[in-house]
Amino acid sequence: MSIKTVGVIGAGTMGAGIALVCARKGHQVMLLDANQAVLDKALVYLESILTKDVEKNKISEQEMTETLELVHLVSEIEQLADCDIVIEAVPERLDLKKSIFSQLSVICREDALLLTNTSSISITEIAGGLSHPERILGFHFFNPAPVMPLVEVIRGKKSSEENVEVAYRFAQELGKVPVLVTDTPGFIVNRIARPYYNEALRVLGDHVAGVEQIDRIMKLAGGFKMGPFELQDMIGIDINFATTKSIYTDFFHEGRFKPSRIQQQMVQSGSLGRKTGEGFYDYNK
Ligand SMILES: NC(=O)c1ccc[n+]([C@@H]2O[C@H](COP(=O)([O-])OP(=O)(O)OC[C@H]3O[C@@H](n4cnc5c(N)ncnc54)[C@H](O)[C@@H]3O)[C@@H](O)[C@H]2O)c1
Questions:
Q1: Cis check: omega of the bond before 149, within 30 degrees of 0
Q2: Ligand 1 mean position, distance from CA 209 (Å)
Q3: Taking every annotated instance into account, which residue ranges of this chain make up the domain 3-hydroxyacyl-CoA dehydrogenase C-terminal (predicted)?
Q4: pTM (2 decimals)?
Q5: What DSSP string describes 94-134?
Q6: Is residue 78 helix, strand or coil?
Q7: CA–CA gap between residue 77 and residue 9 (Å, rounded)
Q8: Active-site choice (190, 198, 240, 246)
Q9: What gap in Å lies between CA 45 and CA 42, rounded to an integer?
């Protein structure tokens, strides 16, 4: 399969980065968001990253212009009809993802690959009841997408082996390191990472230590690049909370995955981390 045009749905934290990864490899990118302000912000982000590449002599000004010209900002899902691959990166909600994939199933060609960047939701459930579920797979980038090398390629119950191979090769072609995963809650990385966030939130809730202290200790003693609270702010506390809830539900409420009330209240209050300027840390200072 020759991949020319890639659709990216959702131009937020992940979608904008995924669009950049694809455009840098010469693909035409149709970047869709329901919110025009997010699309405008995504363009500013792309320009700022590529400008840094020019300043560091990694690319020429002409290459920057050519890469930017590959990214088309769109507002209607029908504009993705000719895409060879579509990567969905809307918020971590099953109803939203199901609705998007049911529209894509009608709009896109039968041989187009339909990928979801979900952190935790069952691929099998997203594809359930849709026509041609063999072309629906998980394709999970890590944040920030242009920097992090890993992509989890997740095989849903009805994903075909042929499409798994195409997705695997596509990840390699993007310069990423793919890992094949079967469809289980949280896949590999988010399942293993849950205790890092959850236990830190319990330590905070038990007043054992504060946010900055916990982050500092995990970096100093554990060798982590970022502490659990810095990471939640970068990921988006809403996205992190939704991921924990989904993993907890899909593991039939095993206590070790139980979500935290602290995180829930931060989401309820609109303190979502860096993207809102305030989370466990204040970014407006
Ligand atoms: N944030 C992370 O660190 C991270 C890492 C890996 C995977 N993910 C996953 O990627 C997905 C997106 O996460 P994010 O952090 O980029 O979210 P985000 O909230 O930053 O961005 C989501 C975007 O989707 C848009 N959107 C919502 N409904 C839409 C629709 N119907 N059509 C088009 N656009 C729509 C929103 O306007 C928003 O801009 C989630 O499934 C998340 O679990 C996130």
A1: no
A2: 31
A3: 186-283
A4: 0.95
A5: HHHHHHHHHHHHHHS-TT-EEEE--SSS-HHHHHTT-S-GG
A6: helix
A7: 8
A8: 190
A9: 5
> What's the pLDDT score for residue 2?
87
Rg (CA), the chain: 19
**pLDDT of 238 above 80:** yes
CA dist., res. 103 & res. 107, Å (int): 6
| pLDDT confidence bin for 40, thresholds 50/70/90 | very high
Nearest CA to 260 among 191, 207, 186, 201? 201
Supply the pLDDT for residue 285: 84
Residue pLDDT, tens place only, 127-163: 999 999 999 999 999 999 999 999 999 999 999 999 9
Longest dimension (CA), the chain: 55
Q: What are phi and psi of 109, to 5 degrees?
A: -65, 155
Q: Which residue bears the tokens 């202290």?
A: 213
User: What is d(CA 125, CA 246) in angstroms, rounded to the nearest whole number?
Assistant: 12
User: CATH number of the domain at 5-182, please?
Assistant: 3.40.50.720
pLDDT band at 212, cuts 50/70/90? Answer: very high
Three-class DSSP labels, 35-47:
CHHHHHHHHHHHH
Tokens of 86: 């579509």
Coil/strand/helix, residue 90: coil
Residue ranges of the domains in the chain?
A: 5-182, 191-276
Judge whether 221 is annotated as a binding position. Answer: no
- Which of 44, 117, 120, 239, when mutated, tests ligand 1's pocket best, judged by the most ligand atoms within 8 Å of its CB? 239
By three-state DSSP, how is residue 182 classified? strand
The structural architecture, per CATH, of the domain 191-276 is: Orthogonal Bundle (1.10)
